[in-house]
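Diaminopropionate ammonia-lyase: C-alpha coordinates wanted.
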Amino acid sequence: MRPSRFWMHSPDPILATNPGCRTDCAARPFHRHLPGYRATPLHRLRGLARRLGLGGLALKDESKRFGLNAFKSLGASYGIYRYVAARWRESTGTALSPSAFLEGKATEKLGRMTFCTATDGNHGRAVAWTARITGNDAVIFVPECMVEERRRHIEHENAEMVIVPGDYDAAVETAAVEAKRRNLHVISDTSWPGYEQIPAWIAEGYETMFVEIAEATEDERFPPDVVLLQCGVGAFPASAVTWFRRRYSIDSPKIVIVEPLGAACVLAAVMARAGETPIDVGDGRTIMAGLNCGTASRIALPALCQADAFLAIDDHYTRKAMRTLYHSLPGDPQVISGESGAAGLAGLMAILEEAALAPVRTALSIGTGARVLVVNTEGDTDPRHFREIVLD
Ligand SMILES: Cc1ncc(COP(=O)(O)O)c(C=O)c1O
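Answer:
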Protein backbone atom coordinates (compact mmCIF):
# COMPACT_ATOMS: atom_id res chain seq x y z
CA MET A 1 0.00 0.00 0.00
CA ARG A 2 1.29 3.45 -0.91
CA PRO A 3 1.28 6.16 1.78
CA SER A 4 -1.33 8.92 1.43
CA ARG A 5 -0.39 12.47 0.46
CA PHE A 6 -2.00 15.52 1.99
CA TRP A 7 -1.89 19.27 2.06
CA MET A 8 -3.63 21.65 4.43
CA HIS A 9 -4.10 25.37 4.48
CA SER A 10 -6.26 28.06 6.02
CA PRO A 11 -9.13 29.01 3.74
CA ASP A 12 -9.41 32.59 2.60
CA PRO A 13 -11.13 34.58 5.42
CA ILE A 14 -13.08 36.71 2.93
CA LEU A 15 -15.13 33.76 1.72
CA ALA A 16 -15.22 32.12 5.13
CA THR A 17 -17.02 35.15 6.61
CA ASN A 18 -19.46 35.62 3.75
CA PRO A 19 -22.78 36.20 5.55
CA GLY A 20 -24.88 34.38 2.98
CA CYS A 21 -26.70 31.86 5.17
CA ARG A 22 -29.11 30.74 2.47
CA THR A 23 -30.48 27.21 2.37
CA ASP A 24 -32.19 27.55 -0.99
CA CYS A 25 -30.71 26.70 -4.34
CA ALA A 26 -32.04 27.45 -7.80
CA ALA A 27 -31.84 23.83 -8.96
CA ARG A 28 -34.15 22.24 -6.37
CA PRO A 29 -37.47 23.52 -7.83
CA PHE A 30 -36.37 22.16 -11.21
CA HIS A 31 -35.44 18.73 -9.84
CA ARG A 32 -38.84 18.42 -8.17
CA HIS A 33 -40.38 18.32 -11.67
CA LEU A 34 -38.28 15.38 -12.83
CA PRO A 35 -40.05 12.00 -13.03
CA GLY A 36 -39.20 9.92 -9.96
CA TYR A 37 -37.72 12.78 -7.95
CA ARG A 38 -37.46 12.24 -4.23
CA ALA A 39 -34.79 13.07 -1.68
CA THR A 40 -32.19 10.30 -1.39
CA PRO A 41 -31.71 8.71 2.05
CA LEU A 42 -29.43 10.18 4.71
CA HIS A 43 -28.30 7.26 6.88
CA ARG A 44 -26.98 7.62 10.42
CA LEU A 45 -24.28 4.94 10.75
CA ARG A 46 -24.27 4.80 14.55
CA GLY A 47 -22.50 1.45 14.80
CA LEU A 48 -19.72 2.52 12.46
CA ALA A 49 -19.38 5.90 14.19
CA ARG A 50 -18.83 4.07 17.50
CA ARG A 51 -16.35 1.66 15.87
CA LEU A 52 -14.38 4.59 14.42
CA GLY A 53 -14.51 6.54 17.68
CA LEU A 54 -16.58 9.41 16.27
CA GLY A 55 -19.49 11.38 17.72
CA GLY A 56 -21.61 10.64 14.64
CA LEU A 57 -21.40 9.56 11.04
CA ALA A 58 -24.02 10.44 8.42
CA LEU A 59 -23.99 9.07 4.88
CA LYS A 60 -26.02 10.57 2.05
CA ASP A 61 -26.81 7.71 -0.32
CA GLU A 62 -26.79 8.95 -3.91
CA SER A 63 -26.87 5.45 -5.35
CA LYS A 64 -30.64 5.86 -5.07
CA ARG A 65 -30.84 8.94 -7.36
CA PHE A 66 -33.44 8.50 -10.14
CA GLY A 67 -32.60 4.79 -10.39
CA LEU A 68 -29.31 5.71 -12.10
CA ASN A 69 -26.98 4.46 -9.35
CA ALA A 70 -25.08 7.77 -9.00
CA PHE A 71 -25.57 11.47 -8.21
CA LYS A 72 -24.59 12.84 -11.61
CA SER A 73 -28.14 13.24 -12.97
CA LEU A 74 -28.64 16.20 -10.62
CA GLY A 75 -26.02 18.16 -12.55
CA ALA A 76 -26.60 16.89 -16.08
CA SER A 77 -30.37 17.47 -16.02
CA TYR A 78 -30.07 20.96 -14.57
CA GLY A 79 -27.21 21.91 -16.92
CA ILE A 80 -29.19 20.79 -19.96
CA TYR A 81 -32.33 22.57 -18.76
CA ARG A 82 -30.48 25.86 -18.26
CA TYR A 83 -28.76 25.52 -21.65
CA VAL A 84 -32.03 24.85 -23.48
CA ALA A 85 -33.82 27.60 -21.50
CA ALA A 86 -31.15 30.11 -22.60
CA ARG A 87 -31.69 29.17 -26.27
CA TRP A 88 -35.46 29.31 -25.79
CA ARG A 89 -35.16 32.83 -24.35
CA GLU A 90 -33.03 33.93 -27.32
CA SER A 91 -35.68 32.60 -29.68
CA THR A 92 -38.91 33.61 -27.88
CA GLY A 93 -37.91 36.28 -25.37
CA THR A 94 -39.72 34.31 -22.65
CA ALA A 95 -38.73 31.97 -19.80
CA LEU A 96 -38.92 28.19 -20.28
CA SER A 97 -40.59 26.52 -17.30
CA PRO A 98 -39.30 23.14 -16.09
CA SER A 99 -42.62 21.50 -16.99
CA ALA A 100 -42.62 22.95 -20.53
CA PHE A 101 -39.04 21.69 -20.93
CA LEU A 102 -39.98 18.21 -19.74
CA GLU A 103 -43.09 18.13 -21.93
CA GLY A 104 -40.80 18.70 -24.94
CA LYS A 105 -42.07 22.21 -25.80
CA ALA A 106 -38.49 23.39 -26.42
CA THR A 107 -37.78 20.44 -28.70
CA GLU A 108 -40.95 21.23 -30.70
CA LYS A 109 -39.90 24.85 -31.20
CA LEU A 110 -36.10 24.65 -31.40
CA GLY A 111 -35.81 21.19 -32.97
CA ARG A 112 -34.35 17.97 -31.65
CA MET A 113 -30.88 18.53 -30.20
CA THR A 114 -27.96 16.15 -29.88
CA PHE A 115 -26.06 16.61 -26.63
CA CYS A 116 -22.60 15.20 -26.16
CA THR A 117 -20.04 14.71 -23.44
CA ALA A 118 -16.98 12.75 -22.45
CA THR A 119 -17.41 10.52 -19.44
CA ASP A 120 -15.89 7.87 -17.25
CA GLY A 121 -19.40 6.52 -16.79
CA ASN A 122 -21.80 8.36 -14.54
CA HIS A 123 -22.02 11.81 -16.13
CA GLY A 124 -22.43 10.29 -19.60
CA ARG A 125 -25.24 8.06 -18.43
CA ALA A 126 -26.92 11.11 -16.83
CA VAL A 127 -26.62 13.20 -20.02
CA ALA A 128 -27.99 10.31 -22.10
CA TRP A 129 -30.87 9.85 -19.63
CA THR A 130 -31.79 13.54 -19.70
CA ALA A 131 -31.66 13.56 -23.52
CA ARG A 132 -33.96 10.54 -23.67
CA ILE A 133 -36.58 11.80 -21.23
CA THR A 134 -36.73 15.20 -22.95
CA GLY A 135 -37.01 13.80 -26.50
CA ASN A 136 -33.47 14.66 -27.57
CA ASP A 137 -30.39 12.64 -28.58
CA ALA A 138 -26.95 12.07 -27.07
CA VAL A 139 -23.49 11.08 -28.26
CA ILE A 140 -21.23 9.93 -25.43
CA PHE A 141 -17.44 9.71 -25.75
CA VAL A 142 -15.89 7.08 -23.48
CA PRO A 143 -12.30 6.00 -22.82
CA GLU A 144 -11.47 2.57 -24.23
CA CYS A 145 -10.80 1.18 -20.75
CA MET A 146 -14.39 1.73 -19.55
CA VAL A 147 -15.97 -1.44 -18.21
CA GLU A 148 -18.71 -3.17 -20.20
CA GLU A 149 -21.47 -2.66 -17.63
CA ARG A 150 -21.02 1.14 -17.59
CA ARG A 151 -21.12 1.21 -21.41
CA ARG A 152 -24.24 -0.93 -21.45
CA HIS A 153 -26.08 1.52 -19.18
CA ILE A 154 -25.26 4.41 -21.52
CA GLU A 155 -26.41 2.48 -24.58
CA HIS A 156 -29.58 1.53 -22.71
CA GLU A 157 -30.48 5.24 -22.73
CA ASN A 158 -30.43 5.09 -26.57
CA ALA A 159 -27.23 7.13 -26.79
CA GLU A 160 -24.64 6.74 -29.52
CA MET A 161 -21.35 5.73 -27.93
CA VAL A 162 -17.94 6.67 -29.31
CA ILE A 163 -14.99 4.73 -27.87
CA VAL A 164 -11.88 6.90 -27.71
CA PRO A 165 -8.36 5.42 -27.57
CA GLY A 166 -6.66 6.57 -24.36
CA ASP A 167 -7.98 7.83 -21.04
CA TYR A 168 -10.74 10.16 -19.81
CA ASP A 169 -8.74 13.29 -20.69
CA ALA A 170 -8.36 12.02 -24.28
CA ALA A 171 -12.14 11.49 -24.41
CA VAL A 172 -12.70 15.12 -23.26
CA GLU A 173 -10.48 16.41 -26.08
CA THR A 174 -12.09 14.20 -28.73
CA ALA A 175 -15.61 15.20 -27.62
CA ALA A 176 -14.75 18.91 -27.99
CA VAL A 177 -13.31 18.38 -31.51
CA GLU A 178 -16.13 16.08 -32.70
CA ALA A 179 -18.78 18.42 -31.28
CA LYS A 180 -17.57 21.18 -33.61
CA ARG A 181 -17.36 18.86 -36.58
CA ARG A 182 -20.79 17.27 -36.05
CA ASN A 183 -22.56 20.30 -34.60
CA LEU A 184 -23.28 18.63 -31.23
CA HIS A 185 -24.18 20.52 -28.04
CA VAL A 186 -21.43 19.90 -25.46
CA ILE A 187 -22.73 19.25 -21.93
CA SER A 188 -19.46 18.79 -20.07
CA ASP A 189 -19.06 18.70 -16.29
CA THR A 190 -15.47 19.87 -16.65
CA SER A 191 -14.54 23.34 -17.89
CA TRP A 192 -11.73 24.86 -19.91
CA PRO A 193 -10.92 28.36 -21.14
CA GLY A 194 -13.92 29.62 -23.09
CA TYR A 195 -16.22 26.78 -21.90
CA GLU A 196 -17.47 27.62 -18.44
CA GLN A 197 -21.18 28.40 -18.25
CA ILE A 198 -22.57 24.87 -18.68
CA PRO A 199 -20.18 23.27 -16.12
CA ALA A 200 -21.18 26.06 -13.71
CA TRP A 201 -24.88 25.15 -14.15
CA ILE A 202 -24.05 21.47 -13.69
CA ALA A 203 -22.26 22.20 -10.40
CA GLU A 204 -25.25 24.30 -9.30
CA GLY A 205 -27.42 21.26 -9.96
CA TYR A 206 -25.48 19.20 -7.40
CA GLU A 207 -26.54 21.66 -4.66
CA THR A 208 -29.96 20.00 -4.44
CA MET A 209 -28.21 17.16 -2.60
CA PHE A 210 -27.00 19.53 0.13
CA VAL A 211 -30.39 21.20 0.48
CA GLU A 212 -31.87 17.72 1.08
CA ILE A 213 -29.22 17.02 3.73
CA ALA A 214 -30.04 20.29 5.51
CA GLU A 215 -33.78 19.47 5.39
CA ALA A 216 -33.22 15.97 6.76
CA THR A 217 -31.29 17.37 9.72
CA GLU A 218 -33.51 20.36 10.48
CA ASP A 219 -34.19 19.14 14.03
CA GLU A 220 -30.58 18.40 14.83
CA ARG A 221 -27.61 20.57 15.53
CA PHE A 222 -26.23 21.04 12.04
CA PRO A 223 -23.87 21.40 10.14
CA PRO A 224 -21.53 18.50 10.83
CA ASP A 225 -17.99 19.22 12.02
CA VAL A 226 -16.26 17.62 9.04
CA VAL A 227 -17.36 16.71 5.50
CA LEU A 228 -15.23 14.46 3.27
CA LEU A 229 -15.88 14.74 -0.47
CA GLN A 230 -14.50 12.62 -3.27
CA CYS A 231 -13.06 14.52 -6.18
CA GLY A 232 -12.56 13.90 -9.88
CA VAL A 233 -12.37 17.10 -11.95
CA GLY A 234 -13.66 18.93 -8.86
CA ALA A 235 -17.17 20.06 -9.85
CA PHE A 236 -18.91 17.99 -7.18
CA PRO A 237 -16.73 18.97 -4.19
CA ALA A 238 -16.63 22.60 -5.40
CA SER A 239 -20.44 22.73 -5.32
CA ALA A 240 -20.36 21.39 -1.75
CA VAL A 241 -17.77 23.93 -0.60
CA THR A 242 -19.78 26.74 -2.20
CA TRP A 243 -23.01 25.59 -0.59
CA PHE A 244 -21.65 24.95 2.91
CA ARG A 245 -19.70 28.22 3.02
CA ARG A 246 -22.70 30.19 1.73
CA ARG A 247 -25.15 28.51 4.07
CA TYR A 248 -23.15 28.30 7.29
CA SER A 249 -20.56 31.05 6.87
CA ILE A 250 -18.09 30.92 9.79
CA ASP A 251 -19.88 27.88 11.25
CA SER A 252 -19.25 25.91 8.09
CA PRO A 253 -17.84 22.40 8.58
CA LYS A 254 -14.22 21.62 7.84
CA ILE A 255 -14.03 20.22 4.33
CA VAL A 256 -11.64 17.52 3.16
CA ILE A 257 -11.18 16.83 -0.57
CA VAL A 258 -10.33 13.17 -1.30
CA GLU A 259 -8.67 11.95 -4.51
CA PRO A 260 -6.95 8.74 -5.62
CA LEU A 261 -3.14 8.77 -5.42
CA GLY A 262 -3.16 7.81 -9.10
CA ALA A 263 -5.11 10.93 -10.15
CA ALA A 264 -4.60 13.77 -7.68
CA CYS A 265 -5.15 16.62 -10.16
CA VAL A 266 -6.85 18.92 -7.67
CA LEU A 267 -4.20 18.40 -4.97
CA ALA A 268 -1.55 19.25 -7.58
CA ALA A 269 -3.50 22.28 -8.84
CA VAL A 270 -4.27 23.87 -5.46
CA MET A 271 -0.66 23.39 -4.32
CA ALA A 272 0.57 25.01 -7.52
CA ARG A 273 -1.83 27.94 -7.03
CA ALA A 274 -0.47 28.39 -3.50
CA GLY A 275 3.09 28.50 -4.84
CA GLU A 276 4.11 25.15 -3.31
CA THR A 277 6.62 22.85 -5.01
CA PRO A 278 4.77 21.18 -7.92
CA ILE A 279 3.76 17.56 -7.42
CA ASP A 280 2.88 14.81 -9.86
CA VAL A 281 -0.80 14.27 -10.63
CA GLY A 282 -0.22 10.49 -10.55
CA ASP A 283 0.12 7.63 -13.00
CA GLY A 284 -3.61 7.32 -13.78
CA ARG A 285 -3.82 3.92 -12.10
CA THR A 286 -6.75 3.63 -9.70
CA ILE A 287 -9.91 1.57 -9.31
CA MET A 288 -11.81 4.81 -8.54
CA ALA A 289 -12.80 5.25 -12.20
CA GLY A 290 -15.08 8.25 -11.60
CA LEU A 291 -12.20 10.11 -9.95
CA ASN A 292 -9.57 9.14 -12.52
CA CYS A 293 -9.07 12.57 -14.10
CA GLY A 294 -5.77 14.20 -15.03
CA THR A 295 -6.93 17.82 -15.22
CA ALA A 296 -8.96 19.79 -12.69
CA SER A 297 -11.96 21.80 -13.90
CA ARG A 298 -10.78 25.40 -14.16
CA ILE A 299 -13.94 26.95 -12.68
CA ALA A 300 -13.96 24.58 -9.70
CA LEU A 301 -10.58 25.67 -8.38
CA PRO A 302 -11.48 28.98 -6.67
CA ALA A 303 -14.11 27.21 -4.52
CA LEU A 304 -11.89 24.17 -3.93
CA CYS A 305 -9.17 26.48 -2.59
CA GLN A 306 -11.62 27.21 0.26
CA ALA A 307 -11.46 23.60 1.48
CA ASP A 308 -9.42 22.85 4.60
CA ALA A 309 -7.48 19.76 3.58
CA PHE A 310 -6.62 17.82 0.43
CA LEU A 311 -5.91 14.14 0.59
CA ALA A 312 -4.76 11.57 -2.00
CA ILE A 313 -5.25 7.95 -0.96
CA ASP A 314 -4.35 4.46 -2.07
CA ASP A 315 -7.07 2.19 -3.53
CA HIS A 316 -6.64 0.00 -0.43
CA TYR A 317 -8.82 2.43 1.56
CA THR A 318 -11.67 2.54 -0.92
CA ARG A 319 -11.79 -1.27 -1.04
CA LYS A 320 -11.92 -1.28 2.73
CA ALA A 321 -14.67 1.37 2.81
CA MET A 322 -16.75 -0.57 0.25
CA ARG A 323 -16.48 -3.73 2.37
CA THR A 324 -17.27 -1.85 5.57
CA LEU A 325 -20.45 -0.37 4.09
CA TYR A 326 -21.53 -3.71 2.60
CA HIS A 327 -20.90 -5.77 5.76
CA SER A 328 -22.67 -3.24 7.94
CA LEU A 329 -22.54 -3.31 11.73
CA PRO A 330 -25.66 -4.31 13.72
CA GLY A 331 -28.22 -1.52 13.53
CA ASP A 332 -26.59 0.19 10.55
CA PRO A 333 -28.15 -0.19 7.08
CA GLN A 334 -26.23 -2.05 4.38
CA VAL A 335 -24.93 0.41 1.78
CA ILE A 336 -23.92 -0.63 -1.75
CA SER A 337 -21.07 1.67 -2.61
CA GLY A 338 -18.87 1.62 -5.70
CA GLU A 339 -15.17 2.39 -5.96
CA SER A 340 -15.64 6.17 -6.30
CA GLY A 341 -18.76 6.18 -4.15
CA ALA A 342 -16.90 4.95 -1.09
CA ALA A 343 -13.96 7.34 -1.48
CA GLY A 344 -15.17 9.91 1.08
CA LEU A 345 -15.42 7.25 3.78
CA ALA A 346 -12.10 5.83 2.54
CA GLY A 347 -10.48 9.22 3.15
CA LEU A 348 -11.89 9.25 6.68
CA MET A 349 -10.50 5.77 7.35
CA ALA A 350 -7.07 6.84 6.07
CA ILE A 351 -7.08 9.89 8.34
CA LEU A 352 -8.03 7.76 11.34
CA GLU A 353 -5.54 4.95 10.61
CA GLU A 354 -2.44 6.32 9.01
CA ALA A 355 0.19 7.61 11.42
CA ALA A 356 1.51 10.16 8.93
CA LEU A 357 -1.96 11.73 8.71
CA ALA A 358 -1.98 12.67 12.42
CA PRO A 359 -1.59 16.39 11.53
CA VAL A 360 -4.88 16.22 9.57
CA ARG A 361 -6.61 14.41 12.43
CA THR A 362 -5.46 17.02 14.90
CA ALA A 363 -6.01 20.11 12.78
CA LEU A 364 -9.57 19.05 11.90
CA SER A 365 -10.32 17.57 15.35
CA ILE A 366 -11.41 14.28 13.83
CA GLY A 367 -11.91 12.06 16.84
CA THR A 368 -14.26 11.44 19.74
CA GLY A 369 -17.25 13.72 19.50
CA ALA A 370 -16.70 14.73 15.87
CA ARG A 371 -19.78 14.54 13.65
CA VAL A 372 -18.80 13.57 10.14
CA LEU A 373 -20.69 13.59 6.83
CA VAL A 374 -19.78 11.52 3.76
CA VAL A 375 -21.60 11.00 0.47
CA ASN A 376 -21.96 7.66 -1.30
CA THR A 377 -21.82 9.14 -4.80
CA GLU A 378 -22.37 5.85 -6.64
CA GLY A 379 -23.56 2.31 -6.12
CA ASP A 380 -22.17 -0.81 -7.81
CA THR A 381 -21.67 0.71 -11.28
CA ASP A 382 -19.20 -2.12 -12.00
CA PRO A 383 -21.08 -5.02 -10.35
CA ARG A 384 -18.52 -7.74 -11.14
CA HIS A 385 -15.65 -5.74 -9.59
CA PHE A 386 -17.92 -4.72 -6.72
CA ARG A 387 -18.65 -8.37 -5.86
CA GLU A 388 -14.96 -9.28 -6.10
CA ILE A 389 -14.11 -6.57 -3.59
CA VAL A 390 -16.87 -6.95 -1.03
CA LEU A 391 -16.87 -10.75 -1.04
CA ASP A 392 -13.06 -10.97 -0.91
C1 LIG B 1 -19.21 8.39 -8.46
C2 LIG B 1 -18.49 9.67 -8.57
N1 LIG B 1 -18.17 10.33 -7.46
C3 LIG B 1 -17.53 11.50 -7.50
C4 LIG B 1 -17.17 12.07 -8.70
C5 LIG B 1 -16.40 13.34 -8.70
O1 LIG B 1 -17.06 14.42 -9.28
P1 LIG B 1 -16.22 15.56 -9.97
O2 LIG B 1 -15.59 14.99 -11.18
O3 LIG B 1 -17.20 16.62 -10.27
O4 LIG B 1 -15.18 15.99 -8.97
C6 LIG B 1 -17.49 11.41 -9.89
C7 LIG B 1 -17.16 11.97 -11.20
O5 LIG B 1 -17.41 11.42 -12.25
C8 LIG B 1 -18.17 10.18 -9.82
O6 LIG B 1 -18.52 9.49 -10.93
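The pocket of pyridoxal-5'-phosphate is lined by residues 70, 120, 122-123, 189, 230-237, 290-291, 340-341, 377-378 (CB under 6 Å). DSSP finds 17 helices and eleven strands in the chain.

Cheers.
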